[in-house]
Amino acid sequence: xxxxxxxxxxxxxxxxxxxxxxxxxxxxxxxxxxxIVVDNQSGDDSQAVILAxxxxxxxxxxxxxxxxxxANNYGIKQAKARNVLLLNSDTLLTDNVLARCVGIxxxxxxxxxxxxxxxxxxxxxxxxxxTTFGQMRRAFYILPAGAFFQNWLHRLIPDPQYSxxxxxxxxxxxxxxxxPSTIALAGGLDESFFMYGEDVEWGxxxxxxxxxxxxxxxxxxxxxxxxxxxxxxxxxxxxxxFKPQIQVSQLLWxxxxxxxxxxxxxxxxxxxxxxxxxAWKIAVNLxxxxxxxxxxxxxRAFTQQVGIFLRFFWKTxxxxxxxxxx
Length: 326
Description:
The protein is of the alpha/beta class.
């Protein structure tokens, strides 16, 4: 039996996948693996380009842009190995990390899933990666900067404490290795998610069947946003920190994991923030002797984002199965 099935979802990223596969074949030793590519209706020459260089890749077409969860679930069903790895197309390996993770799952049956640290394209460790549910939830609240509000949020939404420094509450779907036997117990990725948030919700269910480990002494390169056309156009500010698709998915996760109350608190928070951010900016304009309505683009953008969240309000409130795609 194969040691590992590597599942890569493709959406118009053949060059990234070629680089990813080259790094896999360069550095992976001591295990037998297969590569499964699931295509989300790229509509380009991805299949021909990739199979020309790596003819052993098992290629599957979804027939539509199914997003991350559905495409990976399909790949998991095709897997022939005793371990599976969800791996983003925009990733590179720099050492034999796959064999190391397989060894962890083989030797520690109490571990449900394993991952490693992420580095950027320049090799630097990516800071501020969330590893607990509390870190994620605290980031949803738009509060004034400063220690007072951050400490208050920490008391309200604390993080768990583990004896093992490698143990976390969830692992990024960019690199997540687990067993089909564990997936059979926890269930696959929730297919209501289009992109983002599905790995957080999955971490909650996987964690019921064992520890989740993020190996601090191992890493991979995550270039990020290989198939995202709008990432560079998204300007992040204090109040506009969310890309709409990300936050729609994260709100769905909050509703699924923490219930109606936690979801309604967040929606109410965003609604109340609309007049607050306008009033704050108008006050700043008056202080600076400018027109009250000057430079309100940031506030308008926030209002538009809340409007997008509200498009999914009733569907999310009642946790209706569907396809939460912006």
